[in-house]
Amino acid sequence: MKEIKIEIVLLSPMQLGSGQADVIIDSEAVHDEYGMPYFPAKRFKGLLYESAIEMAELSNEKWFTKAEIDRLFGNKDSLNAGFRVDNFTLENYESMCGQWRMLQKNYPTLFNAKNVWETYTEIRYQTQIDKETGTAAEGSLRNMRVVDAGLKFYGVIYLFDEQKVNQEIIEKALLNLRYAGAKRNRGFGEVKCSIVSCK
Fold it and tell me: Which of 10, 125, 180, 182 is the most exposed place for a label (fewest CB within 10 A)?
């Protein structure tokens, strides 16, 4: 088994929706119980698959074929996939979680998940402009929480099937993967993926 350590750098704010909302936030972003942002493995795998397909099409399947990609990704069946990936987390995640856990237990009014979450995020507002009046359309104000640009997430791809073509699929798909999350056409979610180590 080969372990490929990956770094994802956020070049712009990113909105990885959690599917949750409340009376204040229309679109919340994913975070753990301590308020730490993370990049869900399932979404990363989906983005990597789309990126690999795009690379196969751009090369007219000279680098690798769609069938080889589907075999590596398990034809959407994670049990038969040639690799596994876990959630991507911030550097020193385990250590930071331990510290936040201790602070939240001892000083709950000062340190809670909401405070931690706000350290890594901000709220962005958007509205639709009425084309006739040039003003904000009534009832169109929306907001969403985005994870700050500059954050770095780390994770490992565990490659079970070490055929050369499988490593090439992952490497080229990573290099091609440049956007993640919602509102990509509005300047959000620009990322840079790179391989930190491969052993």
Answer: 125
pTM, rounded to two decimals: 0.84
The number of helices, as runs of H, and strands, as runs of E, in the chain is 5, 7
CB 55 within 8 A of CB 173: yes
Question: Three-class SS of residue 22?
Answer: coil
Give residue 133's Cα distance to chain centre: 38
At 176 the pLDDT is 96
* In contact, 131 and 145? CB cutoff 8 Å: no
Backbone angles phi, psi at 102, to 5 degrees: -65, -45
Lookup result for tokens 């499988």: 166
Classify the phi-psi angles of 26: left when phi > 0, otherwise alpha if psi is within -120 to 50, otherwise beta.
alpha
Distance CA 197, CA 199 (A): 7
E-state strands within the chain: 2-10, 83-85, 89-90, 121-126, 142-147, 152-159, 191-198
CA 43/CA 33 separation, integer angstroms: 19
CA distance 85 to 114: 28
| Both tokens assigned to 135 | 């003003």
Mean pLDDT of 92-117: 87
In the block, tokens 């876990």 appear at 86
pLDDT number for residue 29: 75
Tell me phi and psi for residue 196, to 5 degrees.
-85, -40
